[in-house]
Amino acid sequence: MDILVVGSVAFDTVETPFGQVEDVLGGSATFFSTSASFMTGVQLVAVVGEDFPEEPKGFLKSRGIDLAGLQTRPGETFRWKGRYGYDLNEAHTLETHLNVFESFHPKLPEVFCSAQYVFLANIDPELQLEVLAQVDKPRLVACDTMNFWIDGKRDALIKTLKRVDILLINEAETRQLANEANLVKAARTILDMGPSTLVVKRGEYGVLVFSAQGVFSAPAYPLEEVFDPTGAGDTFAGGFVGYLASTDNLSDSSIRKATVFGSVMASFTVEDFSLNRLRDLTWTEIEARFRKFQALTQFEGLS
Ligand code: AMP
What is the DSSP string of 267-298? Predict the structure, then answer.
């Protein structure tokens, strides 16, 4: 099954202790689509400015991503500037320029409206709602957001969450959204807001998945070289929703396997800046890391 995604397509300027890049390809929808494209078809809805070059569009098309919902508008493309210290788990936003997103209203191409899998990547929750208003009857709606929107557009976000099946956010955002310091209590509060599953991303400490079935925990893949965590969350979501859509199976065991696929995909993104590592990634490498992951987490039961 194809996935419909709405989110940002951006130019990022990023500083980490290991280097710096300026105006490189980024954005929540870009990382998500590229990651998911290893498993299934993707229909992308976003906007870029007239300054957006052809090369990245060619790259996304080469991954089989349908760009019929990508509008080009007068003005500049969304720009984000962030910094990471030695604790790579925490991004410090220095600048957010919405630019063409300020006046953007998504208009879905007719064929996108029947999407069965929808991913509302990190973007203004009002735009997430506008997309939901145009899709017929999706089987699964998954959603990401961040502190910028939890602070700035809380009411719209709460409205969106009522229509979301799976919410994927990081640990600090979980506490912020629930107004609760304890993660388990915070998860319960968020599950009462609408989603039936909450995926809490904890950077190098892995992922916790909360649902009525209980809690599932997966570690992050231990890497020797981590250059830039930008996009790790979106790439995780791409692997996670990509796996669910490719199997069209939403059982608890499928969600567990999707969590590992998400972690595998994210582990590649952080090895280089921007989408560089995903550009030359192969399915053989993905499978090999999935197997290593399995070995990492396998242990015998009680006798
Ligand atoms: P993450 O996966 O959380 O590291 O997401 C990083 C990406 O999110 C970057 O490529 C940014 O361009 C994008 N981004 C940052 N802030 C926002 C925002 N307020 N709305 C939408 N996208 C954003």
Answer: HHHTTSSTTHHHHT--HHHHHHHHHHHHHHH-
Could you tell me the distance, in angstroms and rounded to a whole number, from the CA of residue 301 to the centre of ligand 1? 41
Q: Which residues pair with 175 in a beta bridge?
A: none
Distance (Å) from CA 148 to ligand 1 centroid = 10
Contact residues for 293 (Cβ-Cβ < 8 A; gap 6+): 221, 260, 263, 264
Q: Which domains does the chain have, with CATH numbers?
A: 3-296 (3.40.1190.20)
CA distance 199 to 201: 6
pTM (predicted TM-score): 0.97
Compute the distance from residue 33 Cα to the ligand 1 centre, in Å: 14
In b/e form, how buried is each residue of 250-287, taking b as 16+ CB within 10 angstroms?
A: beeeebebbbbbbbbbbbbbbbbbbbbbbeebeeeebe
Residues contacting ligand 1 via CB (< 6 Å): 8, 10, 12, 26-28, 31, 80, 96, 122-123, 146, 148, 230-234
**DSSP one-letter code for 231:** T
Widest CA span of the chain, in angstroms?
67
pLDDT tens-digit readout, 173-227: 999 999 999 999 999 999 999 999 999 999 999 999 999 999 999 999 999 989 9
